[in-house]
Amino acid sequence: MVNSYRIASIPADGIGPEVVDSAIEVVEKLAQTLKTFTIEFTHIPWGTAYYKETGRYVDKNVLEILQGFDAALFGSVGAPDVPDHISLWGLLLAIRGPLQLYANVRPVRIFPGTQSPLRHADEGDIDWILVRENSEGEYCGQGGRSHLGQVWEAATEVALFTYVGIERIMRFAFETAQSRPRKLLTVVTKSNAMRNGMVLWDEVAAIVAKDFPDVRWDKMLVDAMTVRMVNNPKSLDTIVGTNLHMDILSDLAAALAGSIGVAPSSNLDPTRKNPSLFEPVHGSAFDITGKGVANPVATIWSAAEMLSWLGEKAAAKVLMDSVENVCRKNILTPDLGGNASTKDVTRAVCDEIET
Ligand code: GGG
């Protein structure tokens, strides 16, 4: 008796369809080869083309539709002719919110055969898990505009933090740190300048830390954190911070590890009441859309994280070992300094799975 999974595939915009196709191909190859699980992907056409046709990025019953699946695999959102805040709020945030995907986990490491732009960092020197609070803070959606069109036009963007929201992500981050060999957590805030929400973050961190005496933890201001990531990457392991701070730091982290083209992301509901959503960190990259050179590794790694979340840890390991072997053989897309196409990398990963 093998486990069977139903996955919603939402490729959406830009290079999303190219990299999601690649991830589906390698996961199907994995299932056929290992025969330890079966998996079925159902295409959901949400995205900018759907918006232009229907006036909506997603269906009204987004929660009900996605609850029919075990997980979702997402591509990327954004189009040159739609303002970014319309597409992001219409699609990705319209999914993360109702599903309460409050933990965004973004592992980062240097793959064999690839190089960090940091002269002093080799494989193994960057091996981080970034935990991004994914439901509140600067992305809570509160705020507004007044005096439109006047010189004193004003706009506010509220950063909303709740004790419950901070406590649950902090606990998740401590548990993540505890599960890793170094048991090391860095809590990122800006509590010198932002004296309400960020101070609450510091306070909640200290409270939750008491339940994890075996985890060493420290605090960093987000500006100083950028310097530490560049100058002393080995001093970091698990990192937790707000929605906005970790959105920014995870792009920096990915670039330091070689390319945002390899960075995966899991949007988790740790209570497991709702299906979780897995996606590459990168956006729709219209500059390379349709050219066949998008790096599929971030989406393949996201699919591996999805398998692991579903309980298929052995299959996830086979998949990631295959990706590493492909990198080791220098079959790399241009963002990593190679000249392989998306299809070349996909085929190479499938071949590795078979061997
Ligand atoms: N695959 C992820 C994607 O399309 N990201 C676009 C983006 O702007 N994301 C912002 C966010 O993750 O909050």
TrEMBL record:
InterPro entries: ICDH/IPMDH (IPR050501), IsoPropMal-DH-like_dom (IPR024084), TTC_DH (IPR011829). Transmembrane segments: none annotated. Residues 6-349 form the Isopropylmalate dehydrogenase-like domain. One of its GO terms (molecular function) is oxidoreductase activity, acting on the CH-OH group of donors, NAD or NADP as acceptor. Belongs to the isocitrate and isopropylmalate dehydrogenases family. It comes from the Eukaryota. This is Isopropylmalate dehydrogenase-like domain-containing protein. NCBIfam families: TTC.
